[in-house]
Specification:
mainly alpha, 6 helices, 50% helix, elongated
Length: 100
């Protein structure tokens, strides 16, 4: 060891305090979406290059300016919590619903 650069020992406590041990752990499952809604989201994030942040702030606006298909628009208007479902799909991922 070079005496010009003294070494300092740092002890790191890797145990968690009791108040953190009991905190819930959130695991988000991918959202199930119809294929046409997943295609609309993917098209806007990749082809049109709308940022996730802009998309999430203005889901209703994006629905209008992107000329969403009638099928997508009907799903969005008639599905309860559709804005939340779209937001969760963008943030946590999605899977295509079975069409059975």
């Amino acid at each position: 060891m070079d005496p010009a650069y003294p070494r300092h020992e740092v002890l790191i406590d890797t145990t968690l305090p009791d108040n953190l041990k009991e905190q819930p752990v959130y695991i988000y499952e991918p959202v199930k979406l119809p294929k046409f809604v997943a295609d609309w989201i993917n098209e806007n994030l990749t082809t049109r290059k709308i940022s996730k942040e802009r998309f999430l702030r203005n889901i209703d606006f994006v629905m209008v300016i992107t000329d969403a298909s009638d099928e997508t628009f009907k799903w969005y208007r008639h599905t309860e919590n559709s804005s939340l479902i779209v937001a969760e799909a963008i943030l946590y991922g999605y899977e295509i619903e079975d069409e059975t």
